[in-house]
Automatic annotation (TrEMBL):
Family indicated by similarity: Belongs to the methylenetetrahydrofolate reductase family.
Cofactor(s) needed: FAD
GO cellular component terms attached to this protein's record: cytosol
Keywords: FAD, Flavoprotein, Oxidoreductase
InterPro entries assigned: FAD-linked_oxidoreductase-like, Mehydrof_redctse-like
Pfam families cross-referenced by the UniProt entry: MTHFR (PF02219)
Gene3D superfamilies: 3.20.20.220
Protein's UniProt name: Methylenetetrahydrofolate reductase
Catalysed reactions, semicolon-separated: (6S)-5-methyl-5,6,7,8-tetrahydrofolate + NAD(+) = (6R)-5,10-methylene-5,6,7,8-tetrahydrofolate + NADH + H(+)
Coiled-coil annotated spans: none
Length: 302
């Protein structure tokens, strides 16, 4: 199995996809339809998020394991420190290694229930993501990614301290970062400059959610802490209430954002695809990010 670092360290821009573990059989079928459709586009890696607790966590491990064994894809499991003792975290890391997973996205996670509620570490657990990075690195030859926040983590008072925390995760051994979703490039570019000015050159991959509906347009920024730019609100206002027209305009906005980021030299784009393939396929085709299919027009799944 290859590592994310090997897969993203290539001489042309890549794309990658993030999934969440399915809740039921229907969700599982939908996820696997998306995986099969995206697999032919050769994403650099695909990742699977880690839930707040209980059975969804086992599903993350099972899903990543199945991707590792049943597909040609490079897979990455997310892991959070929420409600886990250090021993339990070691156990999960061991299960991932046994399943052939070599890549882990190390996150602190949010308090269960209210994401902005008070964070309380497990009494025998970890406080911050940099400690999880270090634990994973000590546990085996894993390639580790971390989260980055172009507009600062919602709990951070200042962008400067937030950047220091990101740099601290690189210092602990993280090899790359993926950002929280955002809708305009400036915050991302400034974050990249601050990290470079601090002397770090690990890739920072923009995390982009295709704007396919009014709900994603409004919910995304609400959940992520990135601003909803006034110019975009104005640009998309005429399409409010018209699902198809909003989708077309939203996808145009997303395409332009990705084009700007690629022109600014980002190594690739990480798509929050919500377990669907159509919007990501359209963007990959528009941006020319499917190396093996260069020159051929890809068919867009129905
Ligand atoms: P940290 O880096 O630990 O930061 C948390 C807060 O503590 C920040 O305010 C930071 O500035 C501060 N801080 C960090 N280190 C220190 C320190 N040493 N001393 C003092 N303060 C410090 N959540 C999930 O539950 N499951 C997922 O699968 C998941 N995937 C994600 C993927 C991506 C790409 C992103 C961007 C987020 C994801 N999240 C996921 C959400 C994430 O868990 C939350 O945003 C969480 O609140 C922060 O996690 P972190 O790893 O950035 O934490």
């Amino acid at each position: 199995a290859s590592t994310v670092t090997e897969r993203i360290n290539v001489d042309r821009p890549f794309f990658a996809v993030e999934f969440f573990p399915p809740k039921d059989d229907r969700g599982e079928a939908e996820l696997w339809r998306a995986i099969r459709r995206l697999e032919v586009l050769d994403p650099a890696y695909v990742s699977v998020t880690y839930g707040a607790g209980g059975s969804s966590r086992d599903r993350t491990v099972r899903t990543v394991e199945r991707i590792a064994t049943d597909t040609t894809l490079c897979s990455m499991a997310h892991l959070t420190a929420v409600s886990h003792s250090t021993d339990e975290l070691r156990h999960v890391i061991g299960s991932l290694a046994a399943a052939g997973v070599r890549n882990i996205m190390a996150l602190r996670g949010d308090p269960p229930g209210d994401p902005l509620g008070e964070w309380v570490a497990h009494p025998d657990g970890l406080e911050y993501a940099d400690q999880l990075v270090a634990l994973i690195k000590r546990s085996g030859p894993f390639c580790v990614g971390v989260a980055a926040f172009p507009y600062g983590h919602p709990r951070s008072a200042e962008l400067e301290t937030d950047t220091e925390r990101l740099v601290g995760k690189f210092r602990a051994g993280a090899e790359f970062a993926v950002t929280q979703l955002f809708l305009e490039p400036d915050g991302f570019l400034r974050l990249r400059d601050r990290v470079a000015a601090a002397g770090f050159d690990q890739p920072i991959i923009p995390g982009i959610m295709p704007l396919t509906s009014e709900k994603t347009f409004h919910k995304g920024p609400e959940l992520s802490g990135s601003p909803l730019p006034a110019a975009l609100v104005e640009r998309l206002a005429p399409y409010s209430g018209d699902t198809a027209a909003f989708r077309a305009a939203g996808m145009e906005v997303t395409g332009e954002l990705c084009e700007r980021l690629l022109a600014e030299g980002v190594p690739g784009i990480h798509f929050y695809c919500l377990n669907r393939s159509t919007a990501t396929t359209e963007l990959v085709e528009r941006l020319g990010l499917a190396p093996r299919h260069e020159g051929t027009r890809l068919s867009t799944p129905a």
